[in-house]
Amino acid sequence: MTKRILIVCTGNICRSPVAAAMLQQGLTDIEVKSAGLAAGQGGVEPRIAALAKADGYDLSQHQAKPVDRNLLANADLVLVMSAKQRQLIARTWPEMLGKTLLFGMWRTDKPIDDRDIPDPYQRSDEVCQLVYDTIKTASFAWREKLLDTGSKSVW
Question: Model pTM?
């Protein structure tokens, strides 16, 4: 059963907090958290936070959190934004690889080997919007898969 999901990106200030908020909506029996592989301190990047707020997601209380073994171990499913992040988790915590998947794996607009969600940090407003929209699409796809399986494993 998938009851706890951890969404991971690099800094935990752009992609993963937005993805966690979006995925959490409508999944009342699943806890969704986020963390970053190189997280520092601070809240969500202002442009991403504004896009999320316009869609009804309040990320004002979010504070970046680093990934650690405990967060990974407590998750039933770990979703990363890129294949490189999955490889980093595999190198650092090899026992977590089996439950670590790409957040964008259900995207149909890209070939199977190109479903990473790029980092919008310090990029243009257009890139931020594109990444935000991609996260939204991927979140809806994951939510649908999780709801269709009744929270049972989808992998």
Answer: 0.92
